[in-house]
Amino acid sequence: MKKVRIAPSILAADFGRFAAEAQRTELAGADWLHCDVMDGNFVPNISFGPDVIAALRQATKLPLDVHLMIVRPDLYAERFLEAGADHLIVHVEAAHDVTKTLALIRSRGKQAGLSLNPATPVKQIFPYLDQISEVLVMTVNPGFGGQAFLPETLEKIRELRQRAPQLDISVDGGINPETGRRCVEAGANVLVAGNALYRHKTLALPDAIQELRTYVER
Q1: Catalytic residue among 36, 65, 74, 168
Q2: Which domains does the chain have, with CATH numbers?
Q3: What is the rounded distance in angstroms from the CA atom of residue 85 to the CA atom of residue 123?
Q4: Beta strand pairing status for 33-38 and 5-8?
Q5: Distance (Å, rounded) from C-alpha 153 to C-alpha 123?
Q6: Rounded (5°) CA angle 137-140-143
Q7: Interhelix angle for 18-27 vs 50-59, to 10°?
Q8: Per the residue annotation, which of 14, 97, 172, 207 is the catalytic one?
Q9: pTM above the 0.70 mark?
C-alpha cells in the first residue's frame, strides 16, 4: 500500500489571499498543493495561469501538483514548468500529442501525469503508463468544485492499481473522509480535496486535513 498523500485544492481557498493560503496549507500539514488550471474551453470555467503558479512557488515549499484542464497543454506546458510546477498533469482527451507532451515534462526533470474524465474509458490511459508517474482520476465532471462524487469511477481506480502498482493514483472531485476512504480502498493514494478542507463547516484547516488522513488510513 502506497502512502496516502493529502493534496488540498487551492481552487477552494480564498483567491484574494493566495500566497497566505498556500503558506497556511503548508503549516496545516498538507503533502502537496493541487492547482487546477482551466481555460474556459476544455472545461466550462476559467481559473488562473502560470503567473499564479509562480507566485505560489514563492509562497510555499510544498510540491505543486498542477493540473492543466486546457485544450492545448503542449503549447503551455513549458510556461507552467518554468513557473515552478513540480508535477504537471495533462488530459488524455486534450488536443495534443500525448507522448510528446509527457516527454517534454520529463525532460525538464519534473513528474509527468495524465488525467481522464469520468466518461473516458480507463483503457485510454494504458498506452502511456510507462511514461508517467501519476494518474489523476476525475471523480466528478471537471470545471466546478462542490460536485457530488461519482461512485462509478471507483472501478477505474481498481483497474489502474492492478495494472500500475508503482504509480501515484490521485482522485479529484467530491472527496471527503467517506468518499476518500472508498477511493483509498480501491487503490488511490493521493486525495485532492477542496471544499471538504478549506470550507469545512466546523474544523480549521489543520484539523480537517488530519480528519481526512486519519479516516482513510485507519
Answers
A1: 36
A2: 5-217 (3.20.20.70)
A3: 27
A4: unpaired
A5: 13
A6: 105
A7: 50
A8: 172
A9: yes
Q: What are the Cα distances from residue 14, in Å, to 69, 83, 214?
A: 21, 21, 25
Q: Is 172 a catalytic site residue?
A: yes
User: CA-based Rg of the chain, rounded to a whole angstrom?
Assistant: 16
Three-state SS letters, the chain: CCCCEEEEEHHHCCHHHHHHHHHHHHHCCCCCEEEEEEECCCCCCECCCHHHHHHHHHHCCCCEEEEEECCCHHHHHHHHHHHCCCEEEEECCCCCCHHHHHHHHHHCCCEEEEEECCCCCHHHCHHHHHHCCEEEEECCCCCCCCCCCCHHHHHHHHHHHHHCCCCEEEEECCCCHHHHHHHHHHCCCEEEECHHHHCCCCCCHHHHHHHHHHHHHC
Contact 137, 130 (CB under 8 A): no
Q: Residue 38's beta-bridge partner residues?
A: 69
> Is 51 a residue of the active site?
no
pLDDT tens across the length of the chain (218 residues):
789 999 999 999 999 999 999 999 999 999 999 999 999 999 999 999 999 999 999 999 999 999 999 999 999 999 999 999 999 999 999 999 999 999 999 999 999 999 999 999 999 999 999 999 999 999 999 877 677 999 999 999 999 999 999 999 999 999 999 999 999 999 999 999 999 999 999 999 999 999 999 999 88
